[in-house]
Design a protein that fits this description.
Radius of gyration: 31 Å
Domain Piwi: 622-937
Region (Disordered): 1-56
GO cellular component, one term: ribonucleoprotein complex
Number of helices: 21
Helix content: 10-25%
Largest sheet: 11 strands, mixed
Structural class: alpha+beta
Shape: globular
Strand order of the largest sheet: 34-33-32-37-38-42-41-40-22-1-39
GO molecular function, one term: RNA binding
Keywords: Repressor, Ribonucleoprotein, RNA-mediated gene silencing, Translation regulation
Length: 977
């Protein structure tokens, strides 16, 4: 087979580097026939805590019959301290070392409540944003709970005496691959270390910075580096190294010992790069994780495989610098022919024609991927910029004589290759101005490329099966990884920087908080055991009412089976305390899924007509929906029911229709009850006035989260959700509001807004709803914020605290209830392990630490108010604790107070009889945001975000379209459960 392409436009991919200036792929003809790139309301609880008196004067403008004004001094308890305070923007940023209070002896929860600060009267000012808010210092450590010893995957790092020197690195021509950049810098360091670098080694971050343990013998210098490519060609790079800054370790040491509050993040980052330098060689670096087939790999399906690896991060803690190491796994493209990948990705017969939706899906999946064309001793790489709109059978180009020839004919005549899949589009490489077209069946996906798209259900299941590790196994894997990295044998780490990594996991004195008693109907009270309890013979404390309901069946299940299933489910609801009419309002409607909108509309009209005769003014209260066997309809059903028809629905998968599981019916009954306005259970402490920082005065608890689009969806909006408790003191009912915002925007922009004289926003609406629901204004706000990374703390806090304050003051002058702002983090890599594996007294059945285990020492922040809480029992794998970090606290929480409250709330999740891993307000916000995103399911795929070069530009993303408005009759209940 010839490898010499002579034409200036190049031969096909598969042609060689011949004497002409061929590009190796088919260049398009400017004629019209060439292939062009495609653009192509619940019962009341009898027992309630006493309610402080609340002023009903000073009604804010525009808010009718609503008092959100501050209670007069006479309304406060007799021992209340009246204080004035500067607004947020005028409060000083504290830099002095905080006073650490010694641990107090164990006390009861009630003592902590009694010690809570009284209400505070605020100055009548609306705060404005400042450049920084002072994060509260830790005022002591928790003491409540049974003490125990556990281990954490943190390894103490002893600092050296040498300050890191930072240098800017510029490589020309520009190299986008961090792996290639590391290769260049590694070669440079070995080549010039003795002669030009003062015998110092360089730690390189793969981007634009390098660090040395001392000054290099120059301010700025250019180096030449020649590398041999895989195809045998030699390529030269110019590398400029220029001094940038010296990082003073003394500031880091002062921070770690609490003598200063500002974290020297750049210094920590420099040392993190040093510890990562040797470990990154020959491995794929993805963020703070490193992957390699040496740790293991496997197939996930649909053209995707996984590589195992580990996560590594240097963190400031109370015990000093800590190296956090955890096992990790990542999806990569499986090396295969691109045509085979397309067949697996779409689960499609490639002999059949492609439609536009399929082409766009593949285009997104392959965007910016590297492919290789291999022929005998020939190898050439290309980057995928897109797919052609036409199949390859319709692509033509001019040959050397100027005659128009088809790509299919060219490969047949030139290389004796008969393309098997002429209906497939071609890969578009090159540039927009001069694209190169490559047949998918001669292109191989290059190995080691991470898969950026969201994994499907099958792939997620396979990944969990392959990587799930029990605590004992995970601890052993972490320890082996730490030892194999040989940090203390690394010349850069030990000799140059003088650092040493301790080789033992950190031992921690933890505490196991007691589970809170739960109140059910009547005199029933239950004490959870190891994070779970049973509802057998128990009734919900407040059962909702369902007088009018209907059934829609979109599955292939027979109507008699569906009717039997629904009757069993209704009976379970009745047994658990829901007032439920056993007969549906109208006859069941069955239809294929393509008629979803029509069927739901018919149910609305038929039920409306029937109610007009039998119960004028009433409406359908619940719709059972049996989902179709095929996936992808859930979002459509919820969107129509909740935003168009105003119907609360309960969807059930068709496989459950036959199983008739009592456990399933019980779980669904709990969801139904809260959807129709009931309560399943409440914390006993909320009824006897002993729930810390809640029962002593009207308190509203918020949860907030932002969900972002899956990777590859460049124009989809991010969705913010905020929930707030609507009952006090029980704090079990949460109303949810959602809002769409700019793509990948983490700050919630719609918390408060003002348009002229009109005020609005999520916080304001929820405050009004709380007043209407409870008859009281909130005297305290507790705000659990999920999804914020450490680098976003200050930005999110500044904007969102300001919005909360403005929302309060917009309702009534001077209304500034004390706020506590807590960030909830699950995406971290801290793991806890029992000190003795297999000890029944310190582990649950899965081998994990016990639910209620709390840690606020050693591995926590040196000075700030944070803690880790493992509030749930493990099911499989190793439990992940939740990290709670207090960014603002005007309620003066004690460590015990916040830890006990947070742990107790984790037992109030409405959907199961288990404590959950994350505080329910944050969990509900997460559910509400994903429900809102499901409304967007089925939207037409757009080709506009698949651009040349594979980069989405924010300036070109589509304007944010508002979400469908949730019907008032739906958003007043917990529809998202």
């Amino acid at each position: 087979m010839s490898e010499r392409g002579r034409g200036r436009g190049g031969g096909p991919a598969g042609g060689g580097r011949g004497r002409g200036r061929g590009r190796g792929g088919v260049q398009p003809s400017p004629s019209p026939v060439q292939g062009a790139p495609g653009r192509g309301n619940a019962g009341q609880i009898a027992q309630t805590a006493p309610v402080p008196s609340v002023s009903s004067s000073s009604v804010a403008k525009g808010v009718q019959n609503l008092s959100i004004g501050s209670a007069p001094p006479s309304a406060a308890p007799a021992d209340a301290r009246v204080t004035t305070r500067a607004p947020i923007s005028q409060q000083p940023v504290m830099h002095q070392r905080p006073v650490q209070t010694p641990p107090a002896p164990a006390v009861a929860v009630q003592q902590q409540v009694d010690a809570a600060p009284p209400p505070t009267v605020f100055v009548p000012m609306v705060p404005s944003s400042s450049k920084k808010l002072s994060t509260p210092a830790r005022q002591g450590f928790g003491t409540i709970g049974r003490k125990c010893v556990i281990k954490a995957n943190h390894f103490l790092v002893d600092l050296g005496q040498k300050d890191p020197y930072q240098y800017d690195v510029a490589i020309t021509p520009e190299v986008t691959s961090k792996k290639k950049c590391r290769e260049i810098m590694k070669f440079l360091s070995s080549l010039y270390r003795a002669s030009h670098l003062g015998n110092l080694m360089l730690a390189y971050d793969g981007n634009k910075s390098a660090f040395a343990a001392g000054p290099l013998p120059f301010e700025s210098k250019e180096f030449a580096v020649k590398l041999t490519e895989q195809n045998g060609r030699e390529r030269e790079f110019k590398v400029t190294i220029k001094f940038a800054a010296k990082k003073d370790l003394s500031y880091l040491k002062e921070f770690l010992t609490g003598r200063q509050r500002d974290v020297p993040q750049e210094t920590i980052q420099a040392l993190d790069v040093v510890l990562r330098e040797s470990a990154s060689i020959g491995r794929e670096v993805v963020g703070r994780s490193l992957f390699s087939t040496e740790f293991g790999q496997g197939v996930l399906g649909d053209g995707v495989e996984f590589w195992k690896g580990f996560y590594q991060s240097l963190r400031p803690t109370q015990m000093g610098l800590s190296l956090n190491i955890d096992m990790s796994a990542r999806a990569f493209y499986e090396p295969m022919l691109v045509s085979d990948f397309i067949g697996e990705f779409l689960n499609k017969d490639l002999a059949r024609p492609f439609n536009d939706q399929e082409r766009i899906k593949v285009k997104r999946a392959l965007r910016s991927v590297r492919v290789e064309v291999r022929r005998e001793n020939y190898l050439r790489r290309y980057k995928v910029n897109g797919l052609t709109a036409q199949p390859i059978s319709q692509l033509t180009f001019p040959d050397e004589t100027g005659a128009i020839i088809s790509v299919v004919q060219y490969y047949r005549d030139k290389y004796n290759i008969n393309l098997r899949y002429p209906l497939l589009p071609a890969i578009q490489a090159g540039t927009e101005a001069k694209p190169t077209y490559l047949p998918t069946e001669i292109c191989w996906l290059a190995g080691g490329q991470r898969y950026p798209l969201k994994l499907n259900e099958k792939q997620v299941t396979n990944l969990l099966k392959a990587t799930c590790q029990r605590p004992r196994d995970r601890e052993e894997s972490i320890f082996r990884t730490m030892k194999s990295n040989k940090y203390n044998e690394d010349e850069l780490v030990r000799k140059d920087f003088g650092m040493r990594v301790r080789e033992q996991l950190t031992s921690i004195d933890a505490r196991v908080l007691p589970p809170p008693p739960l109140k059910y109907h009547g005199s029933s009270e239950i004490n959870p055991t190891v994070g779970q309890w049973n509802m057998i013979d128990l009734k919900m404390i407040n059962g909702g009412t369902v007088n009018y309901w209907a059934i829609a069946n979109f599955s292939r299940q027979r109507e008699d089976a569906v009717m039997r299933f629904c009757n069993e489910l209704v009976q379970m609801c009745i047994n658990k305390g829901i007032v439920f009419n056993p007969q549906p309002l109208i006859r069941m409607i069955s239809a294929p899924p393509q008629y979803i909108e029509r069927v739901l509309g018919d149910i609305r009209s038929q039920s409306g007509a029937q109610l007009a005769r039998v119960a004028p003014g009433s409406q359908l209260q619940l719709l059972f929906v049996i989902l179709p066997e095929a996936k992808g309809t859930y979002g459509r059903i919820k969107r129509v029911c909740e935003t168009e028809l105003g119907i609360v629905s309960q969807c059930c998968k068709p496989q459950h229709v036959i199983k008739l599981s009592k456990q399933y019916f019980e779980n669904v009954a709990m969801k139904i009850n809260v959807k129709v306005g009931g309560r399943n259970s409440v914390l006993s402490a909320s009824l006897n006035g002993k729930l810390p920082y809640v029962t002593d005065r009207p308190t509203i608890i918020f949860g907030a989260d932002v969900t972002h689009p899956s990777p590859g969806e460049d124009s989809s909006p991010s969705i913010a959700a905020v929930v707030a408790s609507m009952d006090w003191p029980q704090v079990t009912k949460y109303k949810a509001l959602v809002s769409a915002q700019t793509h990948r925007q983490e700050i919630i922009k719609d918390l408060y807004h003002k348009n002229g004289a009109n005020h609005g926003g999520l916080i304001r609406e929820l405050l009004i709803s709380f007043k209407k629901s409870t008859g009281h204004k909130p005297h305290r706000i507790i705000f659990y914020r999920d999804g914020v990374s450490e680098g976003q703390f200050n930005e999110v806090l500044l904007y969102e605290m300001d919005s909360i304050r403005k929302a309060c003051v917009s309702l009534e002058e001077n209304y500034m209830p004390p706020i506590t702002f807590i960030v909830v983090q699950k995406r971290h890599h801290t793991r806890f392990f029992p000190d003795r594996h297999g000890d029944r007294n310190t582990t649950d059945r899965s081998g994990n630490i016990l639910p209620g285990t709390v840690v606020d020492t050693k591995i926590c922040h040196p000075t700030e108010f944070d803690f880790y809480l493992c509030s749930h029992a493990g099911i499989q794998g190793t439990s992940r604790p939740t990290h709670y970090h207090v960014l603002y606290d005007e309620n003066k929480f004690t460590a015990d107070g916040l830890q006990m409250l947070t742990n107790a709330l984790c037992y109030t999740y409405a959907r199961c009889t288990r404590s959950v891993s994350i505080v329910p307000p944050a969990y509900y916000a997460h559910l509400a945001a994903f429900r809102a995103r499901s409304y967007l399911e089925g939207a037409d795929l757009s080709d506009s975000d698949s651009r040349s070069g594979g980069r989405a530009t924010r300036e070109k993303t589509a304007e944010v379209r508002p979400l469908p408005v949730i019907h008032d009759s739906v958003k007043s209940v917990m529809f998202y459960c």
